[in-house]
Amino acid sequence: MPSDARTLAKVPVTIVTGFLGAGKTTLIRHVLAEAHGRRLALIINEFGDVGVDGEILKSCGIDTCPEEAIVELANGCICCTVADDFVPAIEALLALPNRPEHIIVETSGLALPKPLVKAFDWPPIRARLTVDGVVAVVDGAAVAAGRFADDPAVMAARLKADKAVSHDNPLEEVYEDQLLCADLVILNKSDLLDPAELERVSADIRATVPRAVKLVATHEGRIDPAVLLGLAAAAEDDLAGRPSHHDAEAEHDHDDFDSFIVDLPEVADAAVLLDRLATVAAEHDVLRMKGFVSVKSKPMRLLIQGVGARFRHQFDRAWVQGEARASRLVVIGQKGIDRAAIAAALVA
After folding, report:
1. Which domains are delineated in the chain?
2. What's the pLDDT score for residue 167?
């Protein structure tokens, strides 16, 4: 790359983190729609082999973020493959004829953001990029429902039955690590909370984060992009102020979680399928389901996204001529999730 003034200016990067289904992709889509001509680029990291988030963002059709400026990485944890995946993705984006003015990285819902921030201290990255800020998106309804906290009575019963039971809750650790690294917290899905729940969840978040961090309540990720882009945090220089449950570990992994793909036949009635998905998710404590489904006699593809037993759906685009009308869902849960039973129930 030529060494001119344009090259020497560091490109700001915003890392968008948040647990499975918190609303990261919806937030980013809104930012793209309100970019007002600012050239953006995206790196999207997914946990699972169905590129749902990338498909959603590529379908935006926004000139300031064309398809060639959207890079998908399906390795589950971008920070585990910095040299193999992340650096080449950055190189490709910076080599575009219309170099991006700002890069947004959407981590997978199970990623720990701090190791990714550390990656920006690598000489080939640090010289050209800076972490403008880490934005943690929170599913307010999931927090209010206790998704990330152990039930004290249940834990006491488990400990009484088996003294070897671990106190660690992998969901809580990932959720807290994402908050602890944040420069801005987006409390999303606030419309699903009553005023008392909103205040309680906000207080819990403030009690978790050990420093002054702005907290903004949103619905559908609707927020002025200027609030997200331009934090000027230089997070790579402030690693000590971002504690993690995994600071003492030389490496981290995602052995606590599992994902798999279920191929479905074409469905006749979307409502019946959605009822079945909600039932299966509740019975098997599924964390996340998402994918695309073909509905008989419908010319458009059905996008399905579920968080626990809460599902939403919409027809996102028409099937392209010659495109296989495949129905595939990615299912994510904690380790030991019963793949066979879930797959059998979904295709029944």
Report:
1. 10-241 (3.40.50.300), 257-347 (3.30.1220.10)
2. 43
